[in-house]
Amino acid sequence: MAYNSLMPAFLTVDLLGLLGIVVWHLQGQQRPTARLIVQILFFASMTATLIVSGIPPHRVIAGETDGFAVYMGTAARVLWWVHLAWATIGFIRLYIVLDRRPQEARLIQDLIVAGVYLGVTLSIVGFVFGAPIGTLVATSGVVAIILGLALQNTLGDLFSGIALTLGRPFSIGDWIQLADGTEGRVVQNNWRSTQVLTPANNLVVLPNSTLAKIGLTNLTKPDESHLVILPIRITSDSRPAEVEAILKSALQTCQCIVQAPAPIIALKSIDAIAIDVELQFRVTAPAARTPARNEVIDTVHQRCATHGLSLAMPAQSYLGIAVNSSAKKASA
């Protein structure tokens, strides 16, 4: 087959490739589905044109040495590989959008996109330009080892970020609590770190390698409702059942706590001085704990005063009084 006879096919593919790039940019990043459709249509048209003309899109035909047509054929194949990469990336991004995890999967998406571009670049160098990619890959392997030794901490954050993304211990917007006491809402997760916005409105940046090793509690899953336990002590001159009923009625009037499931009054212990009680109630979100606790304390105090219940001193206070008394007697 005369190479010059293939010029119309190469010219058609070049025009389709350039037109596809222009239309692809005009779609904008906010229309991933439209972009993907454009990519598929232009890529399919370019592939069909090459195949119908008997031109393998992935390699150069032996004997392609006829002047200007060589450059047209090379440009056509480069554009074909570029559109193949874009169509593949479009499928990946559309899947992430349909999976409704565009922010959480950003790290995985970036790595896949980088892998696609690297593979396409090597394919163009090897198949289109005929360069020995084996030597290039071997050389890049040595460079990768050197960079790996120099960037151990950064690579540790990278792979920890991948593990966190795949494991899904949290998502963007979740409220988490770390073993060191740090807690807040996850606002961003990238290849190096995770950012947490604390209740004090401070932004804590946690390296992914550190976050992967530390204990973590997700307060948002299965939902954001959060249990709050408030211990109080009531003097033992009141009947426990009466104490339970009065405190339960107090919690039922609180507006800042969840009433379903109903709050629980747990009588923990009793001695000659006091009844130890735990008020167990839920709030709609971790951020609502402080206003809910304030309301409960105020309501319980008012209800106890109304019904003649007296709050008892902590057990440690009685122990301290007894020790001081013994010391005074001994000194006397």
Task: Please characterize this protein's 3D structure.
There is one protein chain. By secondary structure, the chain is α+β, with helices and mostly antiparallel strands. It folds into three domains: 3-149, no CATH class; 164-218, SH3 type barrels (Roll); 226-316, Alpha-Beta Plaits (2-Layer Sandwich), CATH 3.30.70. Helices cover 56% and strands 15% of the residues. The chain is built from ten helices and eight strands. It has helices spanning 7-27, 32-52, 68-98, 106-128, 133-150, 152-167, 208-213, 240-252, 289-307, 315-331, and strands spanning 175-178, 183-189, 193-197, 203-207, 216-218, 226-235, 264-270, 274-283. The strands form two sheets. A five-stranded antiparallel sheet has the order 4-3-2-1-5. Strands 6-8-7 form a three-stranded antiparallel sheet. A hairpin with a 4-residue loop joins strand 1 and strand 2. It starts with 6 loop residues before the first helix and ends with a helix. The mean pLDDT is 79.
Count of DSSP helices?
10
How many beta-strand segments?
8
Large-scale geometry: elongated
Number of individual domains: 3
Strand arrangement, largest sheet? 4-3-2-1-5
Approximately how much beta-strand content do the residues carry? 15-25%
* H/E element order: HHHHHHEEEEHEEHEEHH
> How is the main sheet built?
5 strands, antiparallel
Helical residue percent?
A: 55-70%
How are the secondary structure elements laid out?
Elements: H1 7-27, H2 32-52, H3 68-98, H4 106-128, H5 133-150, H6 152-167, E1 175-178, E2 183-189, E3 193-197, E4 203-207, H7 208-213, E5 216-218, E6 226-235, H8 240-252, E7 264-270, E8 274-283, H9 289-307, H10 315-331
Antiparallel strand pairs: 1-2, 1-5, 2-3, 3-4, 6-8, 7-8
Helix pairs in contact: 1-2, 1-3, 2-3, 3-4, 8-9
